[in-house]
Amino acid sequence: MIKCPLCSHTAEFFIQDKKRAFYSCPQCQLVFANPQSHLMPAAQLQRYGRANKAAKQKQLVQFIQPLLGQISAQQEGPLTGLNFGRVLDQASLDIIELAGHRLNQYDPFIKSDQQIFNQQYDFICCYRVLEHFQQPLKEWSLITNLLKNGGWLAISTALLTDLAHFSKWHFKNNPTHVSFYQQQTFEYLAQNSEFKLLFAAKELVLMQKTSKSDIKRILI
Q: What does UniProt give as the signal peptide span (predicted)?
C-alpha cells in the first residue's frame, strides 16, 4: 500500500512505463512516481547541472519580473520575496533591488542557507520546482509558514491535463520529475489549507494566503 506524499490518502496504481511505476491519489488528484524509483541526491545534482543554464535564467527572469510588477500594483511599498528552488543571477537581482525590493533565494544544491527560513515573505515564487518535490507535503507546509497573510505564491509547473495520454507525456520522462499536479490538486490545497486559488492554467498557478481563522488545514 502506497500513501500519497501530498495528502497521505491511500493511492492507486496508475501506469507503468519502461522505467517507473506511477500512482494517482483519488483525494487530491496528485500523480506521482513510485518512491523507490527516486534518484539519489548525487544523480539529481548531475541532472540538475545540465538543466541550470542560461536559457533557464532567462525564463526565470521572465517569470519573476512580471510577478513583481503585478504584486506592486496590488500592494504599496517595498516587497520581500523568496525565490524557492532556483537561483537568479546577480545582475537580475540587482535590477530587483534597484526597484526597492528584496529577493532571498533558496536552492537545496547550491544555495541552501537555512537562515532565510527565519522570516516571512510578501511573495514566494517556485519556477519549475514542484515537480521535483519527493515529499510535497513537507515542502507545502514550509511554504505555507513562510508566507505572510495576504502573501502571494506563484508556481510554474506543467499541469497534468490529460490522464489518458500520460504515458506519452514528455514531461514525465525526466527522472527528476516525480510529482505531477492537476488543477484539481491545487483546488484541493486551497480548500484544505490557508490559500485561495486565483488562477491555474497551463504552466502558471497563482495563489494567495488568506487570513481566515476558520479555514480547514491539511492533516499531517
A: none
